[in-house]
Structure formats: structure tokens, C-alpha cells
Amino acid sequence: MIDPSADIHPTAVIEDGASIGAGCRIGAFSVVGSGVSLAENVVLDNHVSVAGVTSIGAGSRVWPFASVGSEPQDLKYSGEKTRVEIGQNNMIREYVTVNPGTAGGGGLTRIGDGNLLMMQVHVAHDCLVGNNIVFANGVQVAGHVVIEDNAVLGSMAGIHQFCRIGQGAMVGGGAIVVNDVIPYGTVVSPRGTLGGLNLIGLKRRGLDKAELNGLRAAYKELFTGEGTLLARAEALRAEMPGNPLVQDVVEFVLSNSDRSFCTPD
Fold first, then answer.
1. pTM to 2 decimals?
2. Residue 16 belongs to a domain
């Protein structure tokens, strides 16, 4: 179904079965597959490919030569109907690729609201991406990765499969992340070690100074105290129950994961 208010260039290809919402604009030589659903006011610039079972939320824009929803780069994939879900008000820049899920990974790649994916970013199969995240140019995200809200990934960073990036974390340009990154942590060095907390990002959000000071103390205790990392996290859960930033970190560390954690040098 194509809403009559949609503006579609005569050279664009809209396959039968696609759903095009009110106010959408689809540019020259773009291709929209039969399983695609575009909410209202989505903009596809020229030469955009949206394929597979893919939905894109209201107000999102996709720049030229991006490919969303094409088959995942996984040799185990055998044509099963899996999905891409992209939320509202996302900016997907030139040459970005977003792959759908696989049967073995839950069948869904999901990107939330208000994200910026700069040029040549790749989001692989079965990734779960939150809201208000910045992917700088050339970020490469492998399969089954979870990225929580308000994270920032610097240019050319690489995220290993099954890693988790906690909310508010910042990954430096060129870093290769092979372990989980705690909420509000910063990652430095080519092989992804923690370089402290993303205090600048937290201050920009206007968070309470006392909570920030508590988070700094908790970070020091978590990575320099006695006992195992999990034991120290359990202790912090009891010591600072009223600090939501600390509790975010504690719950992240204590939740199930297939990876270890990025730690300071």
C-alpha cells in the first residue's frame, strides 16, 4: 500500500506488497522490497536499497547508497524470513549496511530511536541497538552485539560478536572491543582497555554531582578492590543502593554475558 501523499521518483522501484506511509519521499533509483514497511515521513535519498522484512520508523532518513535488510553475512543463513526493525528519527548515512537477524540469533536486528549512523557503518545480524547512539564513520559491529542507550562509538571502532556496550559508554576511535564495556565507561587503546568513565557525557546530561562522585568511587572499588569482579559488584549493590548510576553498572556486570569485561590497564 502506498499512501497517496508519498513523493516517489519515477525511477524508484517499489515492489508489490511494500507499505509506504504518508509524507514519505523516495528518491531516484531507490529500491524498496515487497516486505518493507516505511512509516510516515521517512526519506530515502537516491540509490537506497531497503530489502527483506524491514520496518523503518517515522521521521527517519536514509542517505544514498545505504543498504538495509539485505541477507546477513552469515554462512549459516539459509534464506529464512528474519527481520530488521528500525525506530523513529534515525539518520542512516551513505554506504551504511544493516543486516537482518538469523534463525540462530533470534531472527531480529533492532535499532531504536534517534540514532546517527555515519558513513560506512556496518551493523551485522542479530544486533540489538538502543536509542540516541552515535556511530562515527566506519564503525564495524559484528553479529549478536548489544549496544545500550546514549553510547558513542568513535570512528573505525570494531566491536566483536556477542559483546555488550553499556549505556553512556564511549569507545575511542580505532579501538577493537573484544569484551563487554560497563555503562559510562570509556575505551581506549587499539585493543580496547578501559580508560576511565565518560564523565563529560554524563555532565552534559545534567546528572547530579553527588551521583557522579559516587560512580567514580564505585569504579575505583570495582576494578581495584579485593576479591573477584563479581564479588566486588555484589558488594557495591549493597553499599550504594540509592545511586542509579552505580546500580546500572552493577546490574550490567552481574547479568548474563558470553564475554569477559574490558578492564583498565
1. 0.92
2. yes
Q: Is 144 a catalytic residue?
A: no
Which of residues 112, 128, 144 is at a domain's end? 144
The domain total for the chain is 2
> How far is 245 from 252, CA to CA, in rounded Å?
11
- Assess whether 143 carries a catalytic annotation: yes
Q: Is residue 114 part of a domain?
A: yes
Q: Per residue in 209-247, is it b (16+ CB within 10 Å) or e — as a string? A: eebbebbeebbebbeeeeeeeeebbebbbeebeebebbb
- Domain hosting 243: range is 202-254
Active-site annotation holder among 45, 74, 113, 126: 126
Q: Catalytic residue at 126?
A: yes
pLDDT in tens, 125-160: 999 999 999 999 999 999 999 999 999 999 999 999
